[in-house]
Amino acid sequence: MQKTTGIYSVLSSASAYELFITLIGGKRKRSILVEKYIRPEKGMKILDCGCGPAKIVEFLPDVDYLGIDLSPAYIKKACAKFGDRGKFQVQPVDKIALSGRKFDLVMALGLIHHLNDEQAKTLLKTAYEVLVPGGRMFSCDGVFVEKQPLLARLLLKCDRGKNVRWQNEYEKLAIDIFGRNNVVSHIHKDLTRIPYTHIIIECWKR
Predict the structure, then answer these.
(1) Which end of the chain is more exposed for a tag (fewer CB within 10 A), N or C?
(2) Can you tell me the distance from the alpha carbon of 12 to that of 24, in angstroms, rounded to the nearest whole number?
(3) Which secondary-structure segment (H or E) carries 82?
(4) Distance (Å, whole) CA 12 – CA 123
(5) What global pTM score does this model have?
């Protein structure tokens, strides 16, 4: 994880981060992700890695939710707003301690592009280990693709996550842990109000 400076240090504030995400269309993005990809069911056990202020909880039904994040400020904000709907812990996502808990779904929304390959593989291995058979991991990150609009490419290069990857690089990380036949990726160019390209990866534990 990189030390934050300038605008990035501002975004380390939970309130500033929430405002920024709202301005670029975060509510619509979360709604699409939940409806089309996360597909939560009542009672589902969900682990949200890098949960931030946990705004995704607003879109979830009555689930058993655990959100973890390295930032005490984000976790404090999440507890204040959603403490009656989930549990929240300050933990590094590449050294997660869960005391043997198992989950139906592991989420990593806007997280993996903040991690180097070693950290990302550790996270994916942990996700695989804590998923129940038939469980699923879901991730969403910025991505480089061929014939990408110049502005989208520039915004990705300026992202505070310094490990934005190409599509095949994200896929390889997931395939190395979950297996080629258990990984599906999707590219979206319309999730936010700003030109930005996202990759959504779904992984199944068979």
Answers:
(1) C
(2) 17
(3) helix 72-82
(4) 22
(5) 0.86
* Residue 41: inside a domain: yes
Establish if 16 belongs to a structural domain: yes
Name the residue with tokens 């129940």: 132
- List per-residue pLDDT tens for the chain, 206 residues long: 444 443 344 445 655 656 556 555 578 899 999 999 999 999 999 999 999 999 999 999 999 999 999 999 999 999 999 999 999 999 999 889 998 999 999 999 999 999 999 999 999 999 999 999 999 999 999 999 999 999 999 989 988 899 999 999 999 999 999 999 999 999 999 898 888 999 999 999 99
What is the tally of structural domains in the chain? 1
Q: Token pair for residue 102?
A: 């198992």
For residue 139, what are the domain limits? 7-204
